[in-house]
Specification:
Its cofactor is pyridoxal 5'-phosphate. Pathway: Amino-acid biosynthesis; L-tryptophan biosynthesis; L-tryptophan from chorismate: step 5/5. InterPro entries: Trp_synth_b-like (IPR006316), Trp_synth_b_CS (IPR006653), Trp_synth_beta (IPR006654), Trp_synth_beta/beta-like (IPR023026), TrpB-like_PALP (IPR001926), TrpB-like_PALP_sf (IPR036052). This protein has 452 residues and is α/β, with parallel strands linked by helices. The protein has 19 helices and 15 strands. It has helices spanning 41-44, 50-57, 67-73, 85-91, 112-124, 138-149, 160-165, 167-176, 189-197, 205-217, 231-237, 239-251, 266-280, 299-302, 345-352, 363-377, 383-402, 420-427, 438-446, and strands at residues 4-5, 15-17, 62-64, 81-83, 96-101, 129-134, 153-159, 179-183, 222-224, 257-261, 288-294, 304-309, 318-323, 357-361, 407-412. The longest helix is centred in the C-terminal third of the chain and has 20 residues, at 383-402. The N and C termini lie far apart (59 Å). The mean pLDDT is 94.
Length: 452
């Protein structure tokens, strides 16, 4: 019985898939907060190279992957697809469970798929420094890795609670040559304003984004790089799903259900968009797409679909997305990469179209699922990935209850080797299920910008 499906380097995708080519209705446009009018490429040039701006708005179905990027991808791509046979047996389910394992990358997650591309395009544009934010540290690690390869200075604003929880992620970023600053910090106006209001602030991705954007705007040789949310970031991640399509062909199978965790949306898009594109084109009709988020930060399941800022300091353009409000600071759960107040505009749009099913789980049940996965499949997932594991297990148990065999594919987007403190706390009974504060969300949503 085959367990692992691998591809040779020459089978790696040569182009990224752009779901914007197949949308039944286009995603709502990005607005300039000062004017309320659609943003122009010139408005974005202070943050991004023109090549990425063009990818952000492109409706071409396929965008070629530059050879220098492909050359670096080959160090870990194509990544393996596994059949989780031991997990299936443990669950006593008729379901077939597959997982695409992105933890084999140098940084230990899916994030280098876009970090390498963004570093390449910025280097080509003559940029010398990249600023960014990171929650759990996966994105910061990936950009630090890419910056080292392209000789770019990298400055990472790491959400303070994650910097405290995950010191080894910080050590990895610094080993790659990046400067890591816990956020909120005293180094930016945005950070100082937050600390003046709340000196004990644990930080959030929205706050860290504001600090990173402020620094990039103040330095002509620096640009900002984002690890999720934006269209071009989701585009770069589609190598995951494109490879999975070929690997499932090898297995003689096709997914009935695709599951991935969602914080900003990049790893969900990476695994799901190529299959969702096939569904939009009418090539198949039945696949369900399940996006799993934490109940402590329930952006898709409880958020409002509205125009909002991507950062707390209100330095970014306005995008229409599911949001809990840019001032909302989620509880300090260990899945730091999922603690974002907003969601990718593309994924938000697809949820509104009824093409994606959002689902929220509490922290403890996700860790229980991750431990079960480790004890059957041998890989300890990152806390973020545990949400996808939990979603896949629930779908497999549903198959058992109904007596129906379905094929489930999920994205194991990263390993948990840098997250051992969270597992120590889980096994010691120190973790708790953190519920979001409805009053805080209501206050944050009350401050949404008015868009006519």
């Amino acid at each position: 019985m085959q367990i692992k499906y691998t591809l040779s380097e020459d089978k790696m995708p040569k182009a990224w898939y752009n779901i914007q080519a197949d949308l039944p209705t286009p995603v709502p446009g990005v607005l300039n907060p000062a004017t309320g009018q659609p943003i122009t490429p010139t408005d974005l040039e202070s943050l991004f190279p023109m090549a990425l701006i063009k990818q952000e708005v492109s409706t071409e179905p396929n965008i070629q992957i530059p050879e220098p990027v492909q050359s670096i991808y080959r160090q870990w791509r194509p990544t393996p697809l596994y059949r989780a046979r031991r997990l299936e047996k443990h669950l006593d389910t008729p379901a077939k469970i597959y997982y695409k394992y992105e933890g084999v990358s140098p940084a230990g997650s899916h994030k280098p798929n876009t970090a390498v591309a963004q570093a390449y395009y910025n280097k080509e544009a003559g940029i010398q420094c990249l600023t960014t934010e990171t929650g759990a540290g996966q994105w910061g690690s990936a950009l630090a890795f890419a910056g080292a390869l392209f000789d770019l200075e990298v400055v990472v604003y790491m959400v303070k609670v994650s910097a405290q929880q995950k010191p080894y992620r910080r050590a990895l970023m610094e080993s790659y040559g990046a400067k890591v600053i816990p956020s909120p910090s005293h180094e930016t106006q945005a950070g100082r304003a937050i600390l003046a209001d709340n000196p004990q602030s644990t930080g959030s991705l929205g706050i860290a984004i504001g600090e990173a954007v402020e620094v990039a705007l103040g330095n002509k040789t620096a640009n900002y790089a984002l690890g999720s949310v934006l269209n071009h970031v989701l585009l770069h991640q589609t190598v995951i799903g494109l490879e999975a399509q070929t690997q499932l062909d090898m297995a003689g199978d096709y997914p009935d259900i695709i599951v991935a965790c969602t914080g900003g949306g990049s790893n969900f898009a990476g695994i799901a968009f190529p299959f969702l594109g096939a569904k939009l084109r009418g090539e198949q009709k039945t696949t369900r797409f399940v996006a799993v988020e934490p109940t402590a930060c329930p952006t898709l399941t409880k958020g409002k679909y509205a125009y909002d800022f991507g950062d707390t300091a209100h330095l970014t353009p306005l995008v229409k997305m599911h949001t809990l409000g840019s001032s909302f600071v989620p509880p300090g759960i260990h899945a730091g990469g999922l603690r974002y107040h907003g969601m990718s505009p593309l994924i938000s749009h697809l949820v509104e179209l009824g093409l994606i099913e959002p689902r929220a789980y509490p922290q403890l049940s996700c860790f229980a699922a991750g431990v079960m996965f480790a004890r059957t499949e041998g890989i300890l997932p990152a806390p973020e990935a545990n949400h996808a594991v939990k979603g896949a297990i629930d779908e497999a148990l549903r198959c058992k209850e109904e007596g129906i065999s379905r094929t489930i594919l999920f994205n194991l987007c990263g390993h948990g080797h840098f997250d051992m403190q969270s597992y120590i706390d889980y096994h010691a009974g120190r973790l708790q299920d953190s519920e979001y504060n409805e009053q805080e969300i209501a206050m944050a949503l009350a401050g949404l910008p008015v868009v006519s």
